[in-house]
C-alpha cells in the first residue's frame, strides 16, 4: 500500500514538473494582446494605443489602428512601406510622454524633435528613433537604408542622418550638406537617382533656391554621391537667375536624363508661367518655354505639371487670364518644347492630376462643387465623373494593385473616405469611410503585399469616431483599411 501511494505521489510530481516546464516555454502570439509590447521605459503609459479588429465595433473595414504620439502635438511628414512589408512613419513631436519612450529629446530649450517609427504588419511598433531638429526636408529610402534630411528651426543648415531600416540605428555620422557656392540655400526637392547607366553609381539630385546680394533668385541643381560629397562631372551644377517675383510650381525629374522646372513670373515685364528643361545627356543643354508665347501670347498661370505615361510628352495645368475660373491643360513634346500638341479646358481650378494607364484624371474645385474629370491621351474623350459627385475635397490619387485600380481620398458625408475604381472604371466605383468629421486624411499608401488593403494616416483634433478617445492636442492615427 505504501508503495502504491509512493508511486501515485511520484506520478503527480512528474505531472507538476511537466506542466511547470511547459509554462516556461509557452509564448502568447503578440496579436492576442490588445496593446503593443513596451519598447522602452514606460512606467505610466499615457493611453491604450492599439486597437485590433475584434475591439472595433463602429467600422468593420478597419483591420487595426494605432495612435502615434503622446499628449503633445504630432505632425506627420511622410510614411512608406518597405519591400519586407514594414511601415515607417516620420514626423515631429512636442510630446515628452511619447507612446514607447520617455526621452523624446523634447526639452524647454528644444521643444520639437523628429521621430522615426517602424511598425509591423500587425500594427505593433517595433523600433523607434528620435533626432534633434524640428524641420524635416525630405525622407528617402533605399533597400536597407533611410536617409533623413532635417534641420533646426531658423537655420538653413541641412543635416543628413543615415539610419538602418532593420533597427533604425544610425549607420554613419550625420553629415552637413555642403551647398556652396550658394548662400542660404533652401532645399526645394530631392531625387534619389537609382536608374543609372552601367558603371554610374546611384546619386542624389538636390534642387535648391538661393538669393544673392543683388536680390536675384537662383534655382540650382546639385549632384551628391551617397556619402554626400559633391559629385563632379556632367550636370553637377546648373543655375538660372530669376526676378524676385518668381514662384516655383513644381520640378519633375526624368531619371538620369534631365529635369524640368516650372514656375510663375508676375513682374511688370512678364506675367506668365515659364519652364526650363535641362538634359544631362548632351551637356547641360537648357531649353526654355514661356507658356504665354506658346499659347498665342495669352497670359497663363500654371498650377501643376505631370508626365504622360504612354508617350514622350508632359502636360501643364493652369488658368488663362481670359478664363480665371477654368482649368486649361496643355500637352507638350519633350523634343518640340515650344509646340502645343493638345489642349483642353474644364470648369473649376485644378487641385490634382494623375496620369493613368489610358488618360489623365483631373480633380478641380469650383465655387460650390468639386468636379473630377477623365481626359484620354488623345484629348478626344473628356468625361465628368458623376460617380465622384458626392466625393468632395479630392486629395491623393494613385494607381494600386495590378489591374490599374485607382484610389482617391476625399470627404463623403462629412467623413474622410477612400474611393476605389477597380480596373480604372469609375462606373464601378466604391468607397470606404473612416474616422469622423473632426479627422482628415494626411496620407495614404496601398499595401504592397496585399492590394485589398491600404494604410492611412489620419489626424484628429477631436474625439475619434472609431476609438472614442481624445489623447493629445493633435492625435495621429495609422490605420489599416480593407478596400
Written overview of the protein:
There is one protein chain. With 483 residues, the protein is mainly beta. The protein contains two helices and 33 strands. A five-stranded antiparallel beta sheet has the order 1-2-33-32-31, with no helix packed on it. About 10% of the residues have low confidence. The protein is globular. It has a domain of 138 residues: Prolyl oligopeptidase, N-terminal domain (Methylamine Dehydrogenase, Chain H), CATH 2.130.10.120.
Summarize, please.
The chain has 483 residues and is mainly beta. It has a domain at 247-384: Methylamine Dehydrogenase, Chain H, CATH 2.130.10.120.
Amino acid at each position: 500500500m505504501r508503495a502504491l501511494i509512493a508511486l501515485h505521489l511520484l506520478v503527480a510530481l512528474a505531472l507538476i514538473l511537466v506542466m511547470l516546464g511547459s509554462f516556461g516555454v509557452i509564448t502568447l502570439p503578440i496579436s492576442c494582446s490588445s496593446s503593443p509590447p513596451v519598447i522602452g521605459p514606460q512606467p505610466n503609459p499615457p493611453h491604450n494605443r492599439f486597437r485590433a479588429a475584434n475591439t472595433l465595433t463602429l467600422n468593420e473595414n478597419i483591420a487595426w489602428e494605432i495612435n502615434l504620439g503622446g499628449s503633445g502635438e504630432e505632425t506627420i511628414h511622410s510614411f512608406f512601406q518597405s519591400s519586407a512589408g514594414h511601415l515607417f512613419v516620420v514626423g515631429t513631436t512636442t510630446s515628452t510622454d511619447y507612446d514607447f519612450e520617455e526621452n523624446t529629446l523634447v526639452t524647454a530649450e528644444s521643444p520639437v524633435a523628429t521621430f522615426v517609427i517602424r511598425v509591423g504588419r500587425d500594427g505593433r511598433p517595433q523600433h523607434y528613433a528620435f533626432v534633434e531638429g524640428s524641420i524635416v526636408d525630405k525622407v528617402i529610402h533605399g533597400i536597407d537604408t533611410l536617409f533623413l534630411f532635417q534641420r533646426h528651426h531658423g537655420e538653413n543648415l541641412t543635416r543628413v542622418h543615415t539610419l538602418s531600416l532593420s533597427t533604425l540605428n544610425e549607420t554613419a555620422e550625420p553629415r552637413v550638406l555642403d551647398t556652396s557656392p550658394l548662400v542660404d540655400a533652401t532645399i526645394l526637392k530631392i531625387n534619389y537617382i537609382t536608374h543609372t547607366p552601367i558603371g554610374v553609381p546611384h546619386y542624389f539630385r538636390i534642387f535648391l533656391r538661393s538669393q544673392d546680394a543683388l536680390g536675384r533668385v537662383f534655382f540650382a541643381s546639385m549632384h551628391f554621391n551617397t556619402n554626400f560629397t559633391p559629385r563632379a562631372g556632367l550636370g553637377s551644377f546648373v543655375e538660372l537667375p530669376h526676378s524676385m517675383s518668381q514662384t516655383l510650381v513644381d520640378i519633375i525629374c526624368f531619371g538620369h536624363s534631365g529635369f524640368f522646372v516650372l514656375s510663375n513670373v508676375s513682374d511688370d515685364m512678364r506675367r506668365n508661367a515659364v519652364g526650363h528643361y535641362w538634359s544631362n545627356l548632351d551637356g547641360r543643354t537648357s531649353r526654355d518655354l514661356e507658356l504665354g508665347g506658346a499659347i498665342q501670347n495669352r497670359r497663363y498661370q500654371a498650377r501643376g505639371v505631370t508626365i504622360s505615361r504612354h508617350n514622350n510628352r508632359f502636360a501643364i495645368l493652369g488658368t488663362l487670364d481670359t478664363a480665371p475660373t477654368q482649368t486649361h491643360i496643355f500637352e507638350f513634346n519633350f523634343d518640340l518644347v515650344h509646340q502645343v500638341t493638345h489642349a483642353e479646358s474644364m470648369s473649376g481650378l485644378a487641385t490634382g492630376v494623375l496620369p493613368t494607364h489610358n488618360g489623365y484624371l483631373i480633380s478641380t474645385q469650383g465655387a460650390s462643387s468639386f468636379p473630377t474629370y477623365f481626359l484620354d491621351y488623345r484629348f478626344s474623350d473628356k468625361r465628368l465623373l458623376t460617380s465622384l459627385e458626392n466625393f468632395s475635397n479630392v486629395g491623393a490619387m494613385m494607381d494600386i494593385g495590378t489591374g490599374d485600380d485607382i484610389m482617391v481620398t476625399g470627404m463623403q458625408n462629412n467623413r474622410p473616405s477612400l474611393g476605389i475604381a477597380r480596373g480604372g472604371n469609375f462606373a464601378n466605383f466604391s468607397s470606404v469611410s473612416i474616422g469622423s468629421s473632426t479627422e482628415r486624411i494626411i496620407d495614404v499608401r496601398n499595401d504592397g503585399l496585399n492590394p485589398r488593403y491600404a494604410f492611412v494616416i489620419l489626424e484628429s483634433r477631436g474625439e475619434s469616431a472609431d476609438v472614442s478617445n481624445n489623447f493629445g492636442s493633435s492625435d495621429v492615427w495609422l490605420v489599416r483599411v480593407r478596400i
